[in-house]
Amino acid sequence: MTRVTVWNEYRHERQEERIREVYPQGIHAQLASFLSEAGLDTATATLDEPEHGLTEEVLNNTDVLVWWGHVAHQEVSDEIVNRVHQRVLQGMGLVVLHSGHMSKIFMKLMGTSCDLKWREAGEKERLWVMDPSHPIAEGIGEYIDLEQEEMYGAHFDVPAPESLIFVGWFEGGNVFPSGSTYRRGSGKIFYFQPGHESYPTYYNKEIQQVIINGVNWCAPAKRDYPVYGHSEALEPIREKVGV
Amino acid sequence: MTRVTVWNEYRHERQEERIREVYPQGIHAQLASFLSEAGLDTATATLDEPEHGLTEEVLNNTDVLVWWGHVAHQEVSDEIVNRVHQRVLQGMGLVVLHSGHMSKIFMKLMGTSCDLKWREAGEKERLWVMDPSHPIAEGIGEYIDLEQEEMYGAHFDVPAPESLIFVGWFEGGNVFPSGSTYRRGSGKIFYFQPGHESYPTYYNKEIQQVIINGVNWCAPAKRDYPVYGHSEALEPIREKVGV
Amino acid sequence: MTRVTVWNEYRHERQEERIREVYPQGIHAQLASFLSEAGLDTATATLDEPEHGLTEEVLNNTDVLVWWGHVAHQEVSDEIVNRVHQRVLQGMGLVVLHSGHMSKIFMKLMGTSCDLKWREAGEKERLWVMDPSHPIAEGIGEYIDLEQEEMYGAHFDVPAPESLIFVGWFEGGNVFPSGSTYRRGSGKIFYFQPGHESYPTYYNKEIQQVIINGVNWCAPAKRDYPVYGHSEALEPIREKVGV
Amino acid sequence: MTRVTVWNEYRHERQEERIREVYPQGIHAQLASFLSEAGLDTATATLDEPEHGLTEEVLNNTDVLVWWGHVAHQEVSDEIVNRVHQRVLQGMGLVVLHSGHMSKIFMKLMGTSCDLKWREAGEKERLWVMDPSHPIAEGIGEYIDLEQEEMYGAHFDVPAPESLIFVGWFEGGNVFPSGSTYRRGSGKIFYFQPGHESYPTYYNKEIQQVIINGVNWCAPAKRDYPVYGHSEALEPIREKVGV
User: Fold this and answer.
1) Domain boundaries in chain B?
2) What is the ipTM of this complex?
3) Which residues pair with A121 in a beta bridge?
4) CATH architecture assigned to B3-218
5) Tens digit of each residue's pLDDT (9 = 90 or more) over A165-190
6) This prediction's pTM
7) Angle at CA B68, nearest 5°, toward B65 and B92?
8) Chain B residues within 8 A (CB-CB) of chain C?
9) Residue C235 contacts residue D173 (beta carbons within 8 Å)
10) Chain B closest CA to A5's CA: distance in Å?
């Protein structure tokens, strides 16, 4: 059974009444709720716990980490970021949601600024499936309609993805590469744009399905970690003349 | 005219007689020599200069940076690495040679460990062209033979490249993705494996041609840097009922 | 100087008054006009000429072929399609415009149905630049606005492109991968979606710039065609015991 | 349970004694044997059966088709090739083995010549895993050694793959992209180079594992086929002034 840890900075929900109304127990609780129902072995961790809830033990027992952060990216310690980074390279899956695009861990894995355009105007988004044969799109129709979502707009400063699964159409005239996959080391990564804290996006059944699919796609296979370093010759090497 | 800065840590050549015999003025001098002859506006910079020779002014006047480092990666200051990183994202090209695969700047751009197998056994390498339609392979036949080169072997822990241009065949039985391109932000990156300090690889005319091609391919276009951040709506947004 | 041949089926313009008003000399004449002004050595060819204007001689002297077709795809002979296909594999560039997505030559190169959604409703399109570092986007701002264009919508049944340069936002709620590049054999291919026959799209200066960029990007390098077939061993092969 | 059809032209084994000694019941029988043991619902089909054994009914009940052909590619009828092609675009997986690289179906899906270098010299091949995180490499160590295999050498004239999983090192000095994946329409494709008719390659347990993995990776998901064609607007379209 895939073991999922949902990480949330958990600040908006404690500090702002209108956000708490949307996610009374925190965004992590809502994410964990539908992931559990989908049969995943799910736990949560938040920024203000010791070691941000991401101890060596927790990470060593996590197959896929789900990440939601926004206003407190800089409060995540570099030590924990490095720890998560190592685990991803060794095969732990990572699902980065919405404003997690500027988290330290995502930026470290991408190597770019991860910047984008944005607008909070309560506008409609339609997420079009661009790659219907991808497992992350399984069970989704041609598109997902969200009555309101924060606009994230191109250009999005990330490396070219392995697969571009969704493109978001925004009422206000923008588009965005809303669902993309990457591999880094032995780890698989899925970035998914929807999920602004002030809208009930994570109650939407289709959005939930995409996140469940994303977690399943990111789950690591059971295999050995690659061997690096000095390596003996496998074939005879001829002596070179005059060397 | 493309402005190239060749950066070299310049330690082996000063500390080891047998390396100095191969590159009496340093690897950077040899690289700069054939790049200049190819009509590129070429300067050099080395680790032990102030700011490693990579001041704001130098970088602002560099179109493509060529990087050779090996034993002193950790001596490159994070501040300079961040400065180079910013310039790459803004469009400066970067050619990373041989053991530069473990340089801080390459690791930061890749987001992975950049680890590999290696062996110093004086063995033959044959670099096969895998993508003959790529500009970096222009003027090169089907392969390049190197009488002796350090073995670098798969698995190479980097993200999937934009293009895989060369694969190295090694006498001792290994293969390696020896020439690959990446784009990060507005910058283009070319990694090229040959060039161990103890072999005269950078005197080889075909290797020189590949590096010249790589510099030309990485040269930035003249264009505006993308705009990120808050963005007004371009189309009318309908008021949502009951929100 | 890059030699361009603009191919057009040239039927709408001769048969329909309202189309002729937009392109009195044919779409090919308008395309050739701005390509010539950009310094390209440009000729035209049309369906109803002998061999569709694409004789061996014409193709052997063409560096980049631009293709516009719509209602008469099936009238293009398989022999000519095979001839164009061979030339592309040998390095001739190909720019496929708008409804050319269902041309025999594009389908043969893609290996898929090349099908899509469409709607002719005079709606606005905004072409967003998704890859600002690509040469084909040079000189273009963040997006191109077209007051009216035929809607082409995802899913577009083509292989994953080498680069996705534009995504179209349509007023009616759809998105489309509007500019993509491919390489097949030694040839480079650029597909660009705008250009419905009833709208004056090819008079738009930015659209013209993209097509000029596309032709320049597709232009072949001067190099040898790869060698295939039986090949002697380059290294000694040991006799196997008991074989 | 995934339903597999193994297709073989079945000529070498009937016409040449030395090949029959290696595969007495035909290559298809040997492939079917280990695929069945792996729990796959496996059947076979051969060239000289009516409709080459690939009736509408057979294909409609096939999830993944495995293809081995060599001397008789031209005897496969275009009608059957088109039928297989349609099924792949609709989601049927396709595993193409060894000399199947020049089969009509593979060439039609790739859009290129699919040509390569070759040499039958009984030389050693070492298949290096280039992408250890890919499911097709699961259960395989760092490489697979084959005492003897036909040399297939770069350049291989196919489009850039989705993933490059294996590169073959050949004793005689060549390399080859020996395992690659593609997606075309809703179908997944895996090309795998080993398997010359005169060597006992398909008795090798690791080669068998790769082929089993490839079949499993290519198996289609249960989902709807994309909808193409005319499409009504999803958002209101404003009337344009003066049009």
Assistant:
1) 3-218
2) 0.94
3) none
4) 3-Layer(aba) Sandwich (3.40)
5) 999 999 999 999 999 999 999 999 99
6) 0.96
7) 15
8) 91, 126, 132-133, 135, 137-139, 141-142, 162, 171, 183, 185-188, 221-224, 226-227, 234-235
9) yes
10) 22
